Amino acid sequence: MVNNIKARLVRDVFFKSAICLFAFISLLPLFLILYYITKNGIAVINWDFLTSLPRPIGETGGGVFNAIVGTLILIVLSSVLSIPCGIAAGIYLAENKTGRLSNSIRLSVIVLQGTPSIVIGIIAYLWIVGPLKSFSALSGGIALAIMMLPVIVKTTEETLKLVPYHLKEASLALGVPYYRTLLKVVLPSGMSGILTGILLSVARITGETAPLLFTAFGNQFMNINIFKPIDSLPYRIFYYAMSPYPEWHSFAWGASFVLVVLTLSLNLIARGISAKWKIQF
Amino acid sequence: MENTVLTVEGFSACFGDQKILHNVDLTVQKNVVAALMGPSGCGKTTLIRCINRMHELIPGASVSGKMSLLNEDIYAMQPIILRRKVGMVFQKPNPFPTMSIYENVVAGYKLNGIKMPKSEMDGIVEQSLRKAALWNEVKDTLHRKGTFLSGGQQQRLCIARALAMNPEIILFDEPTSALDPKSTAQIEELFVELKKSVTMLLVTHNIGQAARVSDFTAFIYLGKLIEFGPTEKMFTVPKDKLTEEYLTGKFG
Amino acid sequence: MLQDRIKGLKKEIIEYGVFVEDMIAKSMNGLMNRVKTPLAEVIDIMEPLTNEREIRIDDLCTTTIAQYQPRARDLRVVLMIFKMNSDLERMGDHVANIADSGLFLISHSPVKPLIDIPRMADETIKSLSDAISSFIDENAALAQEVCERDYIIDAIQDQIFRELVTFMSSDPTTIERALHLIRIANNLERVADLSTNICEDVIFMVEGRVIKHHLEERA
Q: How large is the ipTM?
């Protein structure tokens, strides 16, 4: 009996330590990545790096200003394209839980989510770059918008499903028309969830490179015309890292650092919003 | 009759093939509390949901028969106009979580986009909260969220929200079943007070509550209106044997 | 809600008690001054009114219990009023008997000057009015006092009985009138007795203690 209890206690301790160990192992890569990027990237980060354009090989200095601006333009473009569609689809799904259209939308969202980003890039290339006969920020934005869409649709649907039915009833019972009930009661109640979803999807596309290769293409000059090729941080990293020059390699680390800080802060803001604006029903 | 607020004649309601209400007749006079009691699933909630036409929002729902509010056919009116004249308070307190106490009271105006001067709106808020016996508790925190209030206070806020629209009749769907005894007692006292200015229809499965607060009681069983009459009479000498059995706890 | 109902009930029953007191006073007034009007009023108008009142209060008590399910003290109060109501109705009947005998007596010459009967009536009215006061003020001490004072009324009744027996045995023509006087005395005694019943109920209402039938002494 006593032995038995002892054996159990030992097993207990063993399993507890095993769980801690594996949890630590799974966190390790994240910390290593952050460590390397910070170690190698922080050295090249300075005001000049953030605010100047890439220079041709042979000249010292240069930076990623056009890539940062390009990334921001791509984010704005893709958000403008995907948010209205995504939220609308999410509302539709939340309001029509069954039905042919809902089921097919749900299926397409899943399929879209599983589509490799490079394939989306090729599609955008065929649809936009081909007919317009030029790589462009617009085509990049569309490719990224397609990637954002499933995340926004899903989070909108899930959040709105959590809005209790009795709130909608309360509004309808006051004689509020259906569309006003949706806009003024249901949507505001799910706002924090929807915003969180949007920020997470932005964080996700910020780091995408593959779809941009055939669409936004990259540009070492400053460009704000959305019908012309545009630079972006992931593309710049790719470009610098593929080069044979050690100085450019360190630039790639620096750009990576900027990118990681950007996505990390987007994630943190999203968490903050969902915690702070969370509505208790 | 001059004093009649609501009349229900030969009214039936269905979900798909399932008949929920059979041929119900009911007349409710002005400034009374009428209680609808009966075992769970007897159709009492469906009946009041037919009065503000919330029943038809459920897919497969249908109705037949006649209902009129102040001699106006309910089923010939625009639902959104009807629902502004018929207030409703639900089982679970449901203030809008995105709105302050103040905004919740005037939600009926705000959500419908009805504009009015601020002074008038302030007046409506104060008057409605006073009627709902909530003013003294919240007058200093009008701009806090309504969801910070206790359950009983939230329910009184919902009553104030219904009162703010100046309805002809307010429907209560088991308004105290989610509340503690003290909040329940407060709301029951409120009914007696509110009777002076508004007609109320109260669905309850609490026999005691029907007895305490109502002037008239209807007993509904299996979708049929078994008996309707003055509460005093019904609780001392009910006419129908089924009512007698229900009141003495033989079933239900 | 319940408290309002109980308040209303109390008001009704107090008015009822005062009304019965008034009936006794009126009958005595008619008897002593040998006038018919107050006696006829007691029989023809007031007694039927007591019956109406009884039914109304009965109804109010029943619906109060049915609708509000009073508990503890509230229940004791409602039950007390319910019993007081039937006591008062009985008293009304007794007073009508008194007025009835009074009508006979004033149409005949008096047997003797009435001394003990008005004294007894005064004591009875006092018992009843104290019983009602003890109910209004929820004063158990006063109620107790009324119960203890009951022997005075019994003593006067015995005294009247003995005196009238001597009248009847000396002069048989007085028998009918003397019997009517005895009937008045008996009915007054019943009224006083019912007043002590009310007092016992007051003690139960206030303290929850049963003093009826000397239960406590026996225990």
A: 0.89
